User: Fold this.
Amino acid sequence: MSSIYIDADACPVKEETLRVADRHKVKVFVVSNGGIRPNPHPLVETVVVDAGPDVADMWIADRCKAGDVVVTGDIPLAAKCLEAGARVIQHNGEMFTKTNIGNRLATRDLMADLRAADPFRQGGGKPFSKADRSRFLDVLERELRFALRETGGETA
Assistant:
C-alpha cells in the first residue's frame, strides 16, 4: 500500500496533502525535527526525529519505497527517494524525476559554491503563490493515483 511522506519543516502544503490522502485513504507521515503540532487525523502519523542535520531526511529516505509519494523541496533527499522508487513532488508542484535529478543536484551545488564565494550575494526563491498551491494539488492527485495503481491500491 502507498504512503505519503512529508518533509514537514517549512512545508507550506501539509493541509493540501492531507486532503488528497484522506480522499484516497492513504497513510501520511509528517516528519520533522520538532515544532510541528501533531494532527489528530487517524491517517496522520507525526514523526519527530532527533535534532541534527538531515535526520528527518534520513528517516524518510530509509523508509520510502516504490509506490510511495514524498513531498519535499530538499534535492539530496529527493535523489535518495527516487533511488528507492518513490515519486517525489516539490511544494510548488514540480516533480523530481530520474531524468532531472542530476541537473538539479549540479545546479544546487553550483549555487552553493557561488554563495560561498560571495557572502553578500542576495536573492532567493520566488514567493510561494496560489498557482503553486493549485499546481501541487493537481500533481499530487495524479501521482498518488499512479502510485496506488503501482501497488494495487484503489483509486477514488
